[in-house]
Amino acid sequence: MDKFRMIFQFLQSNQESFMNGICGIMALASAQMYAAFDFNCPCLPHYNLAYGLGILFVPPLVLFLLGFVMNNNVSMLAEEWKRPTGMRQKDPAVLRYMFCSMAQRAMIAPAVWISVTLLDGKCILCAFSTSVPVEKLGNLSYTGLSEKEMKRILARIPCKEIYDGQQLIPSEVAIRYLRCISQALGWCFVLLMTMLAFLVRSLRPCFTQAAFLKSKYWSHYIDIERKLFDETCTEHAKSFAKVCIQQFFEAMNKDMGMGHPHLPEKTPSEAGEEKEKLLGITDQGTMNKLLKSWHKCKPPLCLHQELFQNRNGWAGESQPLGPVSLPKREIIAYYSRV
């Protein structure tokens, strides 16, 4: 259990490794899902195409959306996109970088599904069985069939047990023809995805290195800032609840006249530590105001000016991006007073 806990803590601390692991698991899951999928072509002229293309494209769409749902940065991207500008400018390049990073990871599982499906060939065989060129592969002497009847016979090619058109075209010939096309498309798709991944991962930083580094840095900053704010709120909530419960028991002890008139007094260090954790926020209204202010008006990313003298001096000004953010205790203390 200790090893699993260490692995889980490492993945939590390294967001990129965690998301890469999730993408790998989803890719393997998509391949296993296709292997376990019971493919049943309807073998009907008007349904084969819809069924085959549906199996080819609908599951990848679901896996793509699941890739976004399982990414913890989706809510962070939406929050950064919709937040009021306040004292901090929004950088569209950072938002694009975050979205592209999530989209690249979310596309891995759909790409694996489409590749496996095309290489297997069942979907293409079902979808385009009525499009087999009978004049090239079939028996031209077999006449007397209407176009509707011919499509009905060709639609049964994927279903060997009910196919009755061996005199028109052998089923093995049609199956080999369609599977050859499907596998060719599958390898072309794999080559295309590999080339795109190479271009995105290797060539993009070479042409826009400065913009790439800036977008990557501030994307990581937004993620770290959100985590630190959540951790600070969690610590404050624990301290707030502890002090509130202690005050409740002390009040009940006095009201009920219990046999212990005085509870053990806290040492100055313990009292000072609890007061420090509260950061001056000692009531519900102040905390609600702080959270609302954090959402509406995050502090500017600049540490080289006096930030706590005049808040109105920031309003409407374009602030340059600084190297680091405000310390979280100073942020909490400031928003408790505004």
UniProtKB/TrEMBL annotation:
InterPro entries: CALHM. It is found in: Membrane. One of its GO terms (molecular function) is monoatomic cation channel activity. It comes from the Eukaryota. It holds the Pfam family Ca_hom_mod. Keywords: Ion channel, Ion transport, Membrane, Transmembrane, Transmembrane helix, Transport. One of its GO terms (cellular component) is plasma membrane. The chain crosses the membrane at residues 21-37, 49-69, 184-203. It is a multi-pass membrane protein. Belongs to the CALHM family. This is Calcium homeostasis modulator protein 1. The lineage of its organism: Eukaryota, Metazoa, Chordata, Craniata, Vertebrata.
